[in-house]
Amino acid sequence: MANELNPWKLIEKREVFDCNFFTARSDIVHHLHGNPRPYNSLRFKHFGAAVVPIDSDGSTVLIGQFRYVLNRFTWEVPRGGGTLEKDSLEVAKNELSEEAGLTAKSWMHIFDLWVSPGTTDERAPGFVAWNLHQGEPHPEPEEILLRKRVPFSQAIDMVLSGEICDMGSASLLLNIQTRLVRNDLPADLLDILR
């Protein structure tokens, strides 16, 4: 059984870079089984919420865009960020409307994941939304987005083939698929996805 006690002791907190989105730290720490050393990490001031919208025929909407950091185009579920004090469901609702032009009557919180807990404290909440109403997307000026409506099963295939390579999108889609197989979703959503 893993020891759940904290083996780390903070000796000195060192901020080496700070911007509106995160702080980079190079703290000096001591581990129970080691010597004092630097521990580098990113501490985020925002989180990124993701949502899988499910239409009445079992389809979902994917968002395609070119990601600067990856230097490539990606397909993802609607997602975007909010500052830490914001409610994650409200952020997800705003992103769904902004990127896909959708609003939803029904929402389910699927998870709160930590993106890379060895180096960052970035949190990534995920939702599924259904009973949708279509409106007009209104992306931010720097967002050049493509939208693709696909059957939910095709989105799962895109994850398994690596076409959807965003960790948040992939884990959210696969979580919903697993819940579908286990009958662990609200009855009306199960009916739509079957």
CATH architecture of the largest domain: Alpha-Beta Complex
The helix-and-strand class reads: alpha+beta
Question: Fraction of residues in helices?
Answer: 10-25%
Mean pLDDT: 96
How many separate helices?
4
Organism: Enhydrobacter aerosaccus
Family: Belongs to the Nudix hydrolase family. NudK subfamily.
GO molecular function, one term: hydrolase activity
Catalytic activity: GDP-alpha-D-mannose + H2O = alpha-D-mannose 1-phosphate + GMP + 2 H(+)
Question: How would you characterize this protein structure?
Answer:
The protein has four helices and eleven strands; from the N terminus they run ββββββββαβββααα. The chain is α+β, with helices and mostly antiparallel strands and 194 residues long. The chain folds into two domains: 8-44, no CATH class; 46-193, Nucleoside Triphosphate Pyrophosphohydrolase, CATH 3.90.79.10. Strands 1, 2, 3 and 4 form a four-stranded antiparallel β-sheet that branches. The longest helix is centred in the last third of the chain and has 15 residues, at 167-181. It is globular.
Task: Give a brief outline of the structure.
One of its GO terms (biological process) is nucleoside phosphate metabolic process. The chain is of the alpha+beta class.
